[in-house]
Specification:
about 190 residues; mainly alpha; about 80% helix; 7 helices; Four Helix Bundle (Hemerythrin (Met), subunit A)
């Protein structure tokens, strides 16, 4: 498996961890509680920061090479850049919903739920589509020189949340994720 695909799959796992946090906060909201809006804002900031500027460009490089090597496989996938633009719009809707609530503006609970739920579900569908269609097609069609060109153009920037050196603005989020992973493991151990 090419190194970049391994990196992207690991980043997808990290994104799923964040989606679980968002999903949990949405459940709190749906039960009438107050979700941790600050954690939600941090997740939004993370999505604006890392996937938008570093993760998606990697996938788009792979897609461009796939399009050149196997246009039929690329066509079966669709247009990765257009999908990323749609994901950005969903992220903005999610961010606006959080901003409205924090600003004390009138905002229907149902609208908040829909914006957040839409973001979660479509992110998952998009990740799954890339893992089931784009990555396998690229592994099959691309040649070693294609992977070398992609590797040469890679941004060496490390993930600011799931890295040994976590950026300051993401410390609380990382603590939340680690706590939930620990609680999940404890729950599973208690069920066994």
């Amino acid at each position: 498996m090419p190194k970049i695909i391994d990196i992207l799959l690991e980043e997808h796992q990290n994104i799923e961890k964040l989606l679980l946090v968002v999903e949990h906060e949405l459940e709190v909201f749906d039960r009438g509680g107050r979700p941790d809006y600050e954690i939600l804002q941090t997740i939004i900031q993370y999505f604006e920061d890392y996937p938008e500027s570093c993760h998606h460009p990697k996938e788009e490089m792979i897609f461009a090479k796939l399009k050149a090597r196997d246009p039929a496989a690329a066509k079966r996938f669709g247009d990765v850049e257009a999908e990323h633009e749609i994901e950005t719009k969903r992220l903005r809707s999610f961010a606006r919903a959080v901003d409205y609530i924090l600003a004390g503006q009138e905002f229907l609970r149902e609208s908040f739920h829909l914006a957040v739920h839409d973001f979660i579900e479509h992110q998952r569908q998009h990740l799954q589509k890339e893992e089931k269609l784009l990555f396998p097609a690229a592994v099959k069609a691309l040649q070693p020189k294609d992977w070398a060109k992609i590797d040469a153009r890679l941004d060496d920037r490390k993930d600011p949340l799931f890295n040994s050196v976590v950026e300051e603005k993401f410390h609380d989020l990382q603590k939340t994720i680690l706590r939930w992973e620990r609680e999940t493991e404890e729950t599973r151990a208690g069920m066994a």
